[in-house]
Amino acid sequence: MNVLTVVSHPRTNSLTFAVADRFVQGLHDAGHETEVLDLHRSGFNPVLWEADEPDWSASEQQYSPEVEKEIERMKKHDALAFIFPLWWWSMPAMLKGYIDRVWNYGFAYGPNKLHHQHVLWLSLAGAPIERFTKRQYDNMINHYFNVGLADYCGIPNSKVELLYETVVGTEPGHIDRWMTRAYNLGLNYAKH
């Protein structure tokens, strides 16, 4: 399987990038191919301007050269993985802008859907699991990513994986568990 792995974090020395590295190692050890797209260092502009608004009356959509380039990148892969910190119970603005601009009408939804069979949303959450379950944030997050995004865009196999307490849980045992989990998610990618 050829997996596009999209990483969104402003610092390359972050725990998010360490988790991404272990995930990619797992993918490689399982025999998968991957391309890592670092949204911050790629120079991607997350702001949607007029050039990337759908033309609802046109049968064929034309977007900005930057978005067309990212659409072509996505077409080269048959699976997706997104690795990011969970901010305000959702994805960072950089990743949201990528989804807004690239998963656009005519490519990801509407008359055409994404061709990808699998997507993994691997997110690092600073809060403990109890804060999620208390207000059912975990259910909302799962529904948003698995149904609101993946299913709406035609991806049949979507999984959200949250690594909890990534800010306060700095004991070596926590980090080892997160790294092992990330590696195993890559190693068993097609099985989710």
How would you sum up this structure, described in words?
There is one protein chain. By secondary structure, the chain is α/β, with parallel strands linked by helices. It has a single domain (2-191), classed as Rossmann fold, CATH 3.40.50. It is 38% helix and 17% strand. The protein contains six helices and five strands. The chain has a five-stranded parallel beta sheet, sandwiched between helices. Helix 3 links the parallel strand 3 and strand 4 (118-124). The longest helix has 16 residues, at 172-187. The two termini are 13 Å apart. The model has no long low-confidence stretch (mean pLDDT 93).
Report the helical percentage.
25-40%
**Silhouette:** globular
Radius of gyration: 17 Å
Number of separate structural domains? 1
According to CATH, the fold-level topology is Rossmann fold
* CATH-level-4 superfamily name: Flavodoxin domain
Strand content: 15-25%
Main beta-sheet annotation: 5 strands, parallel
Query: How many strand elements?
Result: 5
Structural class: alpha/beta
Low-confidence stretches: none
Write the CATH architecture name. Answer: 3-Layer(aba) Sandwich
Order of helices and strands: EHEHEHEHHEH
Distance between the termini: 13 Å
Helix count from the secondary structure assignment? 6
Oligomer: single chain
